[in-house]
Amino acid sequence: MPFLTTSGDVDELYLGTEGVELDEANPDNRFRLEWIDALEQILDGVAAEPTRPLVITATGKFFSNGLDTDYIAANASGLPRYLDRVHELYTKVLTLPVPTIAAVNGHAFGAGAMLALCADVRLMRSDRGFWSLPEAALGMPFTRGMSTLLRTRLRDDTVTEAILTSRRYGGDDAASAGIVEAAVDVEQLSDRARAIAVERAPLIGPNLGLIKAGLRQPLLADLATPTPPTLL
């Protein structure tokens, strides 16, 4: 389950489980319902007491492998509400009243790739791991909110290629495409993310959350639009 630690003047949100590199129950940090519950609780706590900037990362092979496809296959009638919950999670990250830096430590696919885009700044390890939107290859559509998230957070040439080809971007390619601000050696990834976080720490406070909400207003409106049962 996701957990929060404090390193100096920075909070670090890990998408995996404390004490293990790979959680046997969720080794690739998929958006399982209990995982979403835990992550929402942490984000709500950060929003309620905004005292330190936030680095979002994980350990092991994956940052996040996206939606829980097993749950989707077994719960077609529950899919709209499940996707709405994913949208709500994105909204929480997008509007946190603290600076947020995603340190993408491994594969970030689908919903996990989009979660990284919700951070203010994104770094990615340069030596291994891919950022990818595999929905076209998997025969899955994007929701209205997800499409708007991608369109507003990426350059047009990048989002068009990423969505229509399901390309896998390594760290250097992701930096060149503007998906992340920089590709960083894995040994420096956490330190670089913390340094950026500390630089932005003076901006912490409710006003920062209001500014983010105003900046992302059209995106937040689309994320708040209920997913229609006819999506699939």
Give the % helix.
40-55%
Largest sheet: 6 strands, mixed
The named CATH superfamily: 2-enoyl-CoA Hydratase, Chain A, domain 1
Beta-strand level of the residues, as a percent range?
15-25%
Count of domain modules = 1
The count of strands amounts to: 10
Structural notes for this entry:
With 232 residues, the protein is of the alpha/beta class. It is built from eleven helices and ten strands. The protein has helices at 33-48, 69-74, 79-94, 111-117, 135-138, 144-153, 156-165, 171-176, 186-200, 206-215, 217-223, and strands at residues 3-7, 10-14, 54-57, 62-64, 100-104, 107-109, 121-125, 131-132, 168-169, 182-184. Strands 1-2-3-5-7-10 form a six-stranded mixed sheet, with helices on both faces. The chain has a four-stranded mixed sheet with strand order 4-6-8-9. Strand 2 (10-14), helix 1 and strand 3 (54-57) form a beta-alpha-beta unit. The mean pLDDT is 96.
Question: In brief, what are we looking at here?
Answer:
With 232 residues, the chain is α/β, with parallel strands linked by helices. The protein contains 11 helices and 10 strands. The chain has a single domain (3-231), classed as Alpha-Beta Complex (2-enoyl-CoA Hydratase, Chain A, domain 1), CATH 3.90.226.10.
